[in-house]
Amino acid sequence: KGKGVAGMMKDDPKILGWDLSGTIIDIGDRVKNFKPGDDVFGMINFPNPGKTYAELVAAQESELALKPASTSHDEAAAISLAGLTAWQILKLLRLRKGDKILIHAAAGGVGHYAVQMARALGAEVAATASGRNEEFVRSLGASTFIDYTKQKFEDILHGYDFVLDAVGNDYIDRSIKVLKPDGVIVSIPSGASESVMDKAAARGMKGMRFSCRPSGMNMKEIAAMLEVGSVKSFISARYSPGDVQEAHRQIESGKTKGKLVLMF
Predict the structure, then answer these.
(1) 200 Rama class: left (phi>0) / alpha (psi -120 to 50) / beta
(2) What's the pLDDT tens digit per position in 158-199?
(3) What's the Rg (C-alpha) of the chain?
(4) Does position 5 have pLDDT exceeding 60, yes or no?
(5) CA-based angle 39:44:50, to the nearest 5?
(6) Deepest of 119, 148, 199, 207, by most Cβ within 10 A of its Cβ?
(7) Quick check: 246 pLDDT over 70?
(8) CA pair distance 27, 227, nearest whole angstrom
(9) Cα–Cα separations (whole angstroms), residue 230 to 11, 164, 191, 221
């Protein structure tokens, strides 16, 4: 189990959720950058319980950023965890113009933000997803698309600087074959990616595991991208609090396009 789940087991009542967007109704004595009435968004308290499946949420000032007026609350909430994960990985890689990056699960939550962000940075983006999502993924900025149900990406792609892996398991071994000699692979899934460093090192490359952390500063950077339109949220469904189980079943299917949002 991940640390977030382990922490949740000790908590009572158990309230899920880490990402949010909403309006501040009250602040603590030491808060300097926000005031009641401000619209804010962010990912909070990860990997400990964030408790954002609620009408009222307590958050640290350092974890939030002002929501752009042009972005709706549902769009801002959608990007908070998945978008922050994508952005922190690309910053860790120091991705820049002209770099070549392969992004797996490109139609999903982290993936669809990563494609947009990488393209905005000027990188050349290759992406994997199922064939039904090709038009969507290309519209995000991918110049090369691989339908993983019909093609083996390692037989087609070569000489890439980076791989962002949101799948794990055998995708790690296969992705290493795509990298150039000094390339880097970052793997997100916990457990499945524990050996990524050793596997990459054996081939003279660098493997990294990654876990997102709350950051108001990074959220400000994402807010700037939302404001200029270089990054957008794709929300495939919106749910009411009474439909939480249905939302989680959809996530567990592994076939969610973009993001799901819980509306209060």
Answers:
(1) alpha
(2) 999 999 999 988 999 999 999 999 999 999 986 555 689 989
(3) 18
(4) no
(5) 115
(6) 207
(7) yes
(8) 25
(9) 38, 20, 33, 12
